[in-house]
Amino acid sequence: MEEKKCVKCGRPAAADQAFCPDCLAEAEKYPVKPGVVVLLPRHDQNTKPPSRRRHSPASSEEQIQKLKQRVNALWLALILALSTAGFLGWALVEDHLEEERGNLLPGQNYSAETIGGDEQN
């Protein structure tokens, strides 16, 4: 037959009790009126609450290796971002220059003026 456990802390409790002696003494300090529903957290000793901390590598060499990998990945991301920005900047400048040139054919990117000499009256 399975041993009865305290519903609050999971320690062994008497067969006719829901709480262990320590939790029962603590609960008696704060009496509850009959008929009031009390929700207790489910206690399972076989499972641990999930850890919020990341598990760090065991040795300092592994930590250094992981940090080097992160630094290399950040450098690569920076280089890609800068090269993309440079390419987009170049494309915008080329587009602007092409608009300024208009639809000129080669050799038509100048203006000509006649200076005196051939005047007709």
What report would you give on this structure?
- This protein has two helices and no strands.
- The protein is an all-alpha fold and 121 residues long.
- The protein starts with 20 loop residues before the first helix and ends in a 20-residue tail after the last helix.
| Sequence of secondary-structure elements | HH
Largest sheet: none
* E-strand count: 0
The low-confidence runs, each spanning 5 or more residues with pLDDT under 50, are none
Helix-residue proportion: 40-55%
Q: Note the total helix count.
A: 2
Mean pLDDT: 78
Structural class: mainly alpha
Instruction: Determine Rg (CA atoms, Å).
Output: 41 Å
What is the overall silhouette? elongated
In percent, how much strand structure appears in the residues? under 5%
Assembly state (oligomeric): single chain
Distance between the termini: 130 Å
Please tag this protein with its features.
single chain, about 120 residues, mainly alpha, 2 helices, about 0% strand, elongated
Task: Provide a concise account of the structure shown.
By secondary structure, the protein is mainly alpha-helical.
Topology of this protein?
Layout: H1 21-28, H2 60-101
